[in-house]
Write a structure and sequence with these properties.
InterPro entries: DUF1847 (IPR014997). This protein is an alpha/beta fold. The chain has a domain of about 130 residues: Rossmann fold (3-Layer(aba) Sandwich). About 40% of the residues lie in helices and about 10% in strands. It has 9 helices and 4 strands, in the order H-H-H-H-H-E-H-E-H-E-H-E-H. The chain has a 4-stranded parallel β-sheet, sandwiched between helices. Strand 3, helix 8 and strand 4 form a beta-alpha-beta unit. The longest helix has 16 residues.
Length: about 220
């Protein structure tokens, strides 16, 4: 393998300088901030991205709002409060909520919080449409509880109903892995996440990474083909 080919396979997780943050060290040779990987020069790509942040429009509004919240409230606000602050700064009036049925109680609390802060909300449950999993070709043995109707999660319909409702910002509350991807793909409004589902770790998926050196050693075991 050539030296250049080896460099092309390195990315940010391989960097221990992190000079892109404070510029108090040096950029490694493979740094994505200074090294082009495709046909377009990295300087051009940076300027193209910068244009989205400097030209009036939703991208600029969201970037400025996010930066302001980080700078003013760093370590002070919960994520619930950050979402409310973000919504108000981008002028979002109607908040859509794509919720898992397993977190409907949390969603009900969140709805009350939004109302208390002067924000309207509209929520759509993951089981909306009540389609049995077998109707899209899911084998019956893949049902969590077999021998009865078990509705599939329907993130596409969730997104379309929120689009229809004219929401300004959509919030994910515990959608499954993959279902969240489909929801984001089909949502017209920008999307952020309040709760990321992890049934095993109480919706704290980072815990698996924190304990990968002991309790979850299996995460670092290489799979045999």
């Amino acid at each position: 393998m050539s030296d250049q080919h080896a460099l092309d396979h390195l990315s940010c997780a391989d960097c221990h300088q992190l000079n892109c943050y404070r510029r108090d060290k040096r950029f490694p040779d493979f740094c994505l901030s200074v090294t082009s990987r495709g046909e377009t020069a990295i300087d051009t790509q940076i300027e193209n991205a910068k244009a989205h942040y400097t030209q009036d429009g939703p991208d600029r509004s969201m970037a400025l709002a996010a930066a302001e919240i980080e700078g003013v409230y760093y370590g002070k606000l919960t994520r619930v409060e950050e979402i409310i602050a973000f919504a108000k700064r981008i002028g979002a009036k109607k908040i859509g909520i794509a919720t898992c049925i397993g977190l409907i109680e949390e969603t009900r609390v969140f709805v009350r919080v939004l109302a208390a802060k002067g924000l309207d909300s509209y929520s759509v449950l993951c089981k909306v449409g009540s389609l049995d999993k077998t109707e899209i070709g899911v084998p019956p043995e893949y049902k969590v509880q077999q021998g009865c109707h078990e509705s599939l999660c329907n993130p596409i319909l969730q997104a379309r109903l929120l689009n229809q409702a004219g929401t300004d910002l959509n919030i994910i509350v515990g959608l499954c892995v993959g279902h969240d991807s489909l929801f984001i793909k089909h949502s017209n409004a920008p999307v952020t996440t309040l709760i990321t589902k992890d049934r095993v770790l109480g919706h704290n998926p980072a815990a698996a990474l924190y304990t990968s050196g002991f309790y979850y050693k299996r995460l670092l075991q290489e799979e045999k083909e």
